[in-house]
Amino acid sequence: MAETSDTQKAREILAGYRASIDNIDAALVHMLAERFRCTKAVGHLKATHDLPPADPAREERQIARLRQLAADAHLDPDFAEKFLNFIIREVIRHHEMIARENGAGDAPHAGTDG
After folding, report:
1. Distance CA 14, CA 20 (A)
2. What is the pLDDT of residues 35-54, one digit of tens each?
3. How many domains does the chain have?
4. What is the CATH number of the domain that holds 77?
């Protein structure tokens, strides 16, 4: 069965969207890598200087800020908060590993600043 010109045009448009999505995914991966590079540096700084790893007030401000950014961008704020919480859990895991590597005991959870 031969494709119609409309179907061919739709496939071309779809290919363009998919190429853009692939570029966005690559950018997200690179941005997350840079973010975690920075948060690991923060974790080392905190562990080295015996600074408290958690900043609950900052975390609250960051979540509120991200929710507002999401709303302004017409992105579901609940989704944005879930995404940030996922990242925060990874930061906490990294900071706990760094604290253990620096001889600290069971360190409290890290905040959003890294």
Report:
1. 10
2. 999 999 999 998 898 887 77
3. 1
4. 1.20.59.10
